[in-house]
Amino acid sequence: MIDQGITIGHTGLNVTDLDRSIDFYRDALGVEIVGRSDADGRRYAFLGSGGLPMITLWQQSAAPFAADRAGLHHLAFQVADVAALAVIEARLRALGAAIRDDSGVTGEPAAAGQFFCFDPDGIRLEFHAIERPSRPAPATGDGPACGFF
């Protein structure tokens, strides 16, 4: 049971190029800019819908994300079903994102119910469907398929 009704409100990401990241997330997720500042060299943007932020982008990094440091492992996005997942996959492919299926099930990533890719700064993103298709059991191993880069 989660104490006091706590949920995740939004996720803040450090980026190297605010405009590039805004374009990527807006085109991939269909979000809009709900707030932005370019004042005094402190550039940031809130992306979401209905005036509510989902992702905050902070332009304050000089280099891409480094997976060998403590911090974010991946950012996961959940969609209703495989059809919605296929729409997101098509958007990401149109943006040039390399889609990875780390589920251990061969076949089309969206059809497996999940896939991974990286944003322009190398932040690992997961997309998964609530309603997953019936599929063969994933490959067995010593941990979750998405656990290691």
Could you list some keywords that capture this structure?
149 residues, alpha/beta, 2,3-Dihydroxybiphenyl 1,2-Dioxygenase, domain 1, 2 domains, 4-stranded mixed β-sheet, 3 helices, 30% strand, globular, lyase, VOC_core
Structure description:
- By secondary structure, this protein is α/β, with parallel strands linked by helices.
- It folds into two domains: 1-61, 2,3-Dihydroxybiphenyl 1,2-Dioxygenase, domain 1, CATH 3.10.180.10; 73-135, 2,3-Dihydroxybiphenyl 1,2-Dioxygenase, domain 1.
- Helices cover 19% and strands 30% of the residues.
- The protein has three helices and seven strands; from the N terminus they run E-H-E-E-E-E-H-H-E-E.
- A four-stranded mixed sheet has the order 1-4-3-2, covered by helices on one side. Strands 5-7-6 form a three-stranded mixed sheet.
- The two termini are 31 Å apart.
- The relative contact order is 0.18.
- Residues 139-143 have low confidence and may be disordered.
- Keywords: Lyase.
- InterPro entries: Glyas_Bleomycin-R_OHBP_Dase, Glyas_Fos-R_dOase_dom, GlyoxalaseI/FosfomycinResist, VOC_core.
- This is Lactoylglutathione lyase.
- Residues 7-130 form the VOC domain.
- One of its GO terms (molecular function) is lyase activity.
Strand content: 25-35%
Global morphology: globular
Number of strands: 7
Largest sheet: 4 strands, mixed
The helix-strand sequence is EHEEEEHHEE
* CATH level-4 homologous superfamily of the largest domain: 2,3-Dihydroxybiphenyl 1,2-Dioxygenase, domain 1
What do we call the CATH topology of the largest domain? 2,3-Dihydroxybiphenyl 1,2-Dioxygenase, domain 1
Average pLDDT for all residues: 85
Count of separate DSSP helical elements: 3
Residues in helix, %: 10-25%
Strand order of the largest sheet: 1-4-3-2
Radius of gyration, rounded?
16 Å
Which class best fits the helix and strand makeup? alpha/beta
The tally of domains stands at 2
Q: Which CATH first-tier class of the largest domain would you pick?
A: Alpha Beta
Protein name: Lactoylglutathione lyase
Keywords: Lyase
Domain VOC: 7-130
Organism: Catellatospora citrea
